[in-house]
Amino acid sequence: MGIERIGVVGAGQMGSGIAHVCALAGYDVLLTDVSEDALATAVQKVSGNMDRQVSKGLITAADKDEGLRRIDTTLKLKDLGPTDLVIEAATERETVKQAIFEDLLPHLTPDTILTSNTSSISITRLASRTDRPEKFMGFHFMNPVPIMQLVELIRGIATDVPTYDACKGVVDRLGKTSATAEDFPAFIVNRILMPMINEAVYALYEGVGGVLSIDTSLKLGANHPMGPLELADFIGLDTCLAIMNVLHDGLADTKYRPCPLLTKYVEAGWLGRKTDRGFYDYRGEVPVPTR
Ligand code: NAD
To answer: Does NAD appear among the keywords (predicted)?
Structure first.
């Protein structure tokens, strides 16, 4: 299966990053979103991030021009029909993702591989609603995509070997490293990371420490580059809560119950950096802990 044309669905923080790295690796990228604004913002963001790479000497100005030229945008999902690989990176809601694959199916070539960048939703269940469960798998990039080295490759129960090998080949060409995960709730990274973040929120909730004490402890005491609460703000507290709920529902173990304080922050609309307030308040010059 030769992959040259990649369709990316969803032009948010992940979709724009995926388009960025695929274009720099020489793939032709067609990026789609339901929002024209999201598409325009994504192209601007890719250009700005490529400028940063040029100024650091990681790529040349010619690489940037060539990369940007390889990214096309469209509001019509069906335009992705002739691509070799589709990477779905739309909002983390199962109904949204299912509808995207359903709408796309009639326009696809028989060989197109379908993948999802979902952080937690069952690949097997998404695949089962398509006409090609054996050509369907999880392609889980980390945020920010141009910087993070790992891609988790998740096999659904029906995923066949040529599909896995083709996706692994794409990860290799991107210059990234893959780790293989079987299809269980939240896969590997978030299965381990989210309970740690949730436990940090419990420590805050129970008054074991304040925001700064908890983040400083993990940074200096466990050598983590970011504290767990700072990291939660970066990921998005709504996303963290959604993943904890998937773990709790999918594994039916009370050890995954989301901390009530995490739920409260989400109810308040304090979702982290994207809303300027979460465990830290980002509205001033420097982030200020909110507890
Ligand atoms: P985001 O909110 O930044 O972007 C989602 C985009 O999807 C938006 O631009 C939205 O307009 C678009 N969209 C919604 N419905 C659509 C549809 N029907 N067709 C086309 N586009 C549609 O979200 P994100 O952080 O980029 O997350 C996207 C996916 O990546 C999710 O599945 C998420 O779980 C996963 N993910 C996120 C992170 C992270 O740290 N944020 C990390 C790894 C994986």
So the answer is: yes
